[in-house]
Design goal:
Elements lengths: L2 E3 L5 E3 H42 L3 H22 L3 H5 L1 H8 L6 E2 L2 H13 L8 E4 L4 E7 L22 E7 L1 E5 L2 E3 H5 L5 H23 L14 E3 L8 E5 L13 H9 L2 H4 L3 E4 L1 H7 L11 E2 L9 E2 L2 E5 L10 E7 L1 H4 E5 L4 E5 L6 E14 L5 E6 L2
């Protein structure tokens, strides 16, 4: 065996030197593996801390983090037509995948501003049942009769009760559109509050169109309005008709005891519906009703002192809707009922906006759309006052 000299002058066998070199090499590899694993473990712990911190935030904070990028990207699209950021957002891609509607999903500030205005306008929306759906229509199952019942004894055979009659009412959704416009110079002004301006213009046009459709719409490319359904004298009205009470005079109240028609209207409505009932009429009819007195000379109309509270007629709230008809021969100018039971409004929650800088130069058009529908679901829950014989 060949002998080698050690550092201290001694000799080390060549085989031992090789073994020592192999041991040092393996030790170095082992150390590197340990360091790599420690670094990976430290990275996993850091990521876990971040996830835990995110989960611990309030839902509002999480929503803000989601909404902020979309709102910033949407502002860039509205002002400059730059939609590159919108196309890259998962929120936009998900929304576009579930709908064929044109345009981009509006920023929350605009959408919520429009909805707030729609809820406070003089429209049946303020009284009706409003539901949000993701489909092209909304279906309501309506009980036409009550479930049968009866008394039973311990020994006698129980008679079979009647089954309820169920009717399916379908409310299709229609596209409601508005197209406000602005100049590019105005859009380039950083001090111009574009989101608020756009929300106001869209809400104004939507509110007028909605309110008219919910009262008198014919159901063709728009909701079917309350007054588009057939009516008949309350005593003979069928399940598909709205019962009405007549004033006895064409286009006006009777000269003698005019308030009796309103009292008859109230008690024509079934007791279960009267608890949450309200009157709906326009300003002209309200002016006529305010002058009516009972037999003791007291006005039927009562103004409330509390801010925001509606006036009351015969103890029931009154909503002024300018889309209700003026008094005329056989006009149905006053509605009274539980409108939450009677009428349902179905809508898609999303508002979409498409920027169009070409069609009306030098103006930029903003084509805003949403889907909404409405229909009568329970004719028994509402009655009409007929200004006629």
């Amino acid at each position: 065996m060949t002998e080698v000299k050690t550092a201290g002058g001694g000799d080390m066998p060549a085989g031992l030197k090789g073994a020592m070199a192999e041991f040092v090499s393996e030790l170095r590899i082992f150390r590197e593996n340990v360091e790599t694993k420690l670094q990976a473990q430290e990275h996993r712990m850091t990521m876990l801390d971040r996830k835990t911190a995110f989960r611990g935030r309030s839902p509002l904070a999480q929503a803000a983090e989601i909404e902020a990028p979309h709102q910033k990207a949407f502002a860039a699209y509205l002002r400059r037509g730059d939609d590159s950021a919108l196309r890259g957002l998962a929120l936009e891609e998900k929304a576009m995948a579930s709908s064929t509607d044109a345009g981009y999903l509006a920023a929350p500030q605009i959408s919520e501003g429009v909805q707030a205005v729609l809820r406070t306008t003089g429209s049946l929306r303020a009284l009706a049942n409003v539901v949000q759906v993701e489909s092209a229509s909304y279906e309501v199952l309506m009980d036409k009769t009550d479930i049968g019942s009866g008394w039973a004894s311990e020994t006698a055979a129980t008679a079979e009760t009647d089954s309820p009659q169920i009717e399916k009412v379908q409310i299709p959704l229609h596209e409601l559109a508005a197209m406000p416009k602005a100049t590019q110079r105005l859009l380039d002004d950083a001090s111009f509050d574009l989101e608020s301006w756009l929300a106001e213009r869209i809400a104004e046009k939507f509110a007028r169109a909605e309110a008219a459709a919910f009262v008198s719409g014919n159901g063709v490319d728009k909701p079917r309005g309350l007054l588009s359904y057939g009516s008949a004298p309350n005593a003979t009205a069928t399940e598909a008709q709205i019962g009405h009470v007549s004033t006895g005079v064409s286009g006006d109240f009777a000269a003698s005891a005019p308030a009796n028609a309103l009292i008859d209207l109230v008690y024509a409505l079934g007791a279960p519906y009267r608890a949450n009932a309200a009157f709906v009429m326009n300003s002209r009819v309200a002016g006529m009703v305010r002058k009516l007195r009972d037999g003791d000379g007291r006005y039927l109309w009562t103004d409330t002192l509390a801010a925001g509270e509606p006036a009351r007629l015969l103890g029931y709230p009154v909503m002024i809707s300018e889309d209700m008809p003026n008094p005329a021969a056989n006009s149905k100018s006053i509605a009274f009922g539980d409108f939450r039971q009677a009428y349902t409004i179905a809508e898609r929650p999303d508002l979409r906006i498409l920027r169009d800088p070409f069609s009306a130069k030098p103006h930029v058009l903003f084509y805003a759309t949403k889907r909404v529908g409405g229909g009568l679901v329970d004719p028994r829950a509402v009655k009409l006052l007929n200004f006629g014989l």
